[in-house]
Amino acid sequence: MGSGFDKIRRHNCTLFINKIFRNDNLEQALSAGEKTLRERYQLTPVRSSHYSRVYKFSASFNGRERWIYFKQYLYRSTWDFIKHLVRPSRAKRAFEATLMLEKNGFEAPVIVAMGEHKSSFLDRGNFLVTFEAEGTKQINQLIPESLENLTREQSQDKREMIRAFGQTVGRMHAADIFHGDLRLGNVLVRWGKNDWHLFFIDNERTRKFRRLPARLRLKNLVQANILISDCVTKTDRMRFFKAYLSINPCVQCCYKDWAQRVVAKTNQRFRDKGWL
């Protein structure tokens, strides 16, 4: 586990707490369970998958009030529960993958805590707590629905953001890292002083390989392309791909074949979803 975290055991819970951001009241509530957390904080539900519960609330850290997200991972099935008796919890995998991304120079919301409850053999739970990535939006939320009334400055911002996205995914793949779910809702963006910053969330299935498998490279490229908007042109998609290629010479040498594979797979996904 990360060296920047303290390990604490309270009740039937094991907590890994960020050493820089400590809050005794929050730590006590997290270790006691969701009921106590609700009693001490005003939890606002956040839309999530059927297999997790996410809440947003504020807490004080070093004299400053900060927004944080609490994500509780749920078991998908009985078989999923059985598997997690012998493998790391979903929260632990997300925790380790996020730290791995940061170690390799990529950005993600800062982890406040990770916890695992084991009240009994059948009563188990796990969760991850992160700071809000301030000033960010999902990348798909920043893409206008239409080119109509788009100013020159807005068009330039869109092009630069798409180019930054392609370069960042390119760097990730060049480092042999596969993002487990690169849907655009899992990519947060924020404009910095001179460039775009991208933050990756839902990192549970994100992995670093000795050599990135071609099928997973293709999967990420297709996920990054799945966006229906009149504002995203063929030129924009090629802009993303060129930025990606500039950092991946192993793909650049056969870019036509890869482009055809990405387009074919993306169109198939569109047809499967009934979008074409």
Short description:
With 276 residues, the chain is α+β, with helices and mostly antiparallel strands.
Describe the fold and architecture.
The protein is an alpha+beta fold and 276 residues long. The protein has two domains: 127 residues, Phosphorylase Kinase, domain 1, CATH 3.30.200.20; 135 residues, Transferase(Phosphotransferase), domain 1 (Orthogonal Bundle). 38% of the residues lie in helices and 24% in strands. The chain is built from nine helices and twelve strands. A seven-stranded antiparallel sheet has the order 1-2-6-7-5-4-3, sandwiched between helices. Strand 3 and strand 4 form a beta hairpin. Helix 1 runs antiparallel to helix 2, helix 5 packs parallel to helix 7 and helix 6 packs across helix 9. It is globular, with a radius of gyration of 20 Å. It starts with a strand and ends with a helix. The relative contact order is 0.11. The model has no long low-confidence stretch (mean pLDDT 89).
Count of all domains: 2
CATH topology of the largest domain: Transferase(Phosphotransferase), domain 1
Straight-line distance between termini: 45 Å
Query: What's the story with the biggest beta sheet?
Result: 7 strands, antiparallel
CATH class of the largest domain: Mainly Alpha
CATH architecture of the largest domain: Orthogonal Bundle
Features:
alpha+beta; Phosphorylase Kinase, domain 1; Transferase(Phosphotransferase), domain 1; seven-stranded antiparallel β-sheet; 9 helices
